[in-house]
Amino acid sequence: MSLYIEGLGAVATPCSRMAQFQEVMRQQLEASMDKELEKLLSVTEGADVEVARKDFEGFKKLFHRFLQAKGPSVDWAKIHRPPEDSIQPYERIKARGLPDNVSDCLDKLVVVKLNGGLGTSMGCKGPKSLISVRNENTFLDLTVQQIEHLNKTYNTDVPLVLMNSFNTDEDTKKILQKYTHHRVKIHTFNQSRYPRINKESLLPMATDLGTMGENADAWYPPGHGDIYPSFYNSGLLEQLISEGKEYIFVSNIDNLGATVDLYILHFLMSQPNGKRCEFIMEVTDKTRADVKGGTLIQYDGKLRLLEIAQVPKAHVDEFKSVTKFKIFNTNNLWISLSAIKRLQEQSAMDMEIIVNPKTLDGGLNVVQLETAVGAAIKSFDNALGINVPRSRFLPVKTTSDLLLVMSNLYSMDAGSLTMSEKREFPTTPHVKLGSSFTKVQEYLSRFESIPDMLELDHLTVSGDVTFGKNVSLKGTVIIIANHGDRIDIPAGAMLENKIVSGNLRILDH
């Protein structure tokens, strides 16, 4: 079966007979998929079946579009830089100041955090949002503290909504009990659960709707673009609109820079009714570390998000250039609730499919069909980018990132991290910790206390290395323990522009 499927994708002939043949093949594949999905529903009972049936409707639409796709999703010749006024500098937004009554604006806002991810890449079990990042506070703790501070300061009622996945929902709901007495209303809804498909047969690998045993790897949450149908289907979207809410501020829960910005909120709320901006994407200047990040382009007269997966191979280097594409998407988004409702009801939400191939532990090659929340920007009216300071993009993806946010580079106030005033320049140091530090528990065991990093520019650590208490790192510090060697940086040590190698020699850099 795989032979003709692969051929199907490669064929590009004007011959109408071949086109008819391809269409017949597509119809057969869709019929086979429908049959398999019905079979999965038939072997399960209870409430799960109705939830799965709704999920499968969304999956079938995505699968249909996947089979229809021909070649790259963008024509490189049609890509243009966005017009000047379509990406506003943050300074211009901030210069407008704040209204007399900030609470009126806040009363129309909902904060949504994308909470579908697990902490497995950092060696942790359960939701990533429950990893401690600062003074024993988790990502979720910091989020709740930030919103509670807003609600108390402005006597308002900004709710928090968590978009969970089937991987994170149960553990998250257990932990939410601890916030019962906080001044934040917390709602949750689940994103869809889609079946992984066998790359060869293009059929689901699941044998029933369960997620244990042989079906443990059979399901996946289909990317954060799924927020639109899942939010709508949950009934929560309608409920929030009926409560007078107008906009959601959406961000990844592991981006510690994604706090509610009152200037952007005021800008949104002060637009004239006929020209209300329905979608704002926060972008920031690209550095060499961000070359793979999605960027905003003008395409067919609309602002559009271009991801590296959509770029033809011949143009990947051009895409990574920091001169042609100067900004990237932070995934901090401000979106109109009524616009989401309208687009969902008109089935007009247009997002490119991300085809994500994976190889499971047993060697089986599977495909995940996903979408990205920012890709819908072209469906909304009067969409804008705002070029925000880098401080609004502080993601914690690795223990190297964790070291930065745990250090004295940042001070914390009401759940928000800000760069310490004692640091003389605003850029964060480049930190690269080796494989011995990948898992959070291993990483923590290697630091008796987090070093002073106020004057650090660059840190590379590789091999079996530990740090004593009150170590200070300045300038460029490189510590490399060769295989079989161990390096213990003694308590109170001050390393400035030093290379420390396997035999514990400390050299000037």
From TrEMBL:
<feature type="binding site">
    <location>
        <position position="223"/>
    </location>
    <ligand>
        <name>UTP</name>
    </ligand>
</feature>
<feature type="binding site">
    <location>
        <position position="397"/>
    </location>
    <ligand>
        <name>UTP</name>
    </ligand>
</feature>
<feature type="binding site">
    <location>
        <position position="191"/>
    </location>
    <ligand>
        <name>UTP</name>
    </ligand>
</feature>
<feature type="binding site">
    <location>
        <position position="254"/>
    </location>
    <ligand>
        <name>UTP</name>
    </ligand>
</feature>
<comment type="similarity">
    <text>Belongs to the UDPGP type 1 family.</text>
</comment>
<dbReference type="Pfam" id="PF01704">
    <property type="entry name" value="UDPGP"/>
</dbReference>
<keyword id="KW-0808">Transferase</keyword>
<dbReference type="InterPro" id="IPR002618">
    <property type="entry name" value="UDPGP_fam"/>
</dbReference>
<dbReference type="GO" id="GO:0003983">
    <property type="term" value="F:UTP:glucose-1-phosphate uridylyltransferase activity"/>
</dbReference>
<dbReference type="GO" id="GO:0005978">
    <property type="term" value="P:glycogen biosynthetic process"/>
</dbReference>
<dbReference type="InterPro" id="IPR016267">
    <property type="entry name" value="UDPGP_trans"/>
</dbReference>
<protein>
    <recommendedName>
        <fullName>UTP--glucose-1-phosphate uridylyltransferase</fullName>
        <ecNumber>2.7.7.9</ecNumber>
    </recommendedName>
</protein>
<keyword id="KW-0548">Nucleotidyltransferase</keyword>
<dbReference type="InterPro" id="IPR029044">
    <property type="entry name" value="Nucleotide-diphossugar_trans"/>
</dbReference>
<comment type="pathway">
    <text>Glycan biosynthesis; glycogen biosynthesis.</text>
</comment>
<dbReference type="GO" id="GO:0006011">
    <property type="term" value="P:UDP-alpha-D-glucose metabolic process"/>
</dbReference>
<comment type="subunit">
    <text>Homooctamer.</text>
</comment>
<feature type="binding site">
    <location>
        <position position="224"/>
    </location>
    <ligand>
        <name>substrate</name>
    </ligand>
</feature>
<feature type="binding site">
    <location>
        <position position="128"/>
    </location>
    <ligand>
        <name>UTP</name>
    </ligand>
</feature>
<comment type="function">
    <text>UTP--glucose-1-phosphate uridylyltransferase catalyzing the conversion of glucose-1-phosphate into UDP-glucose, a crucial precursor for the production of glycogen.</text>
</comment>
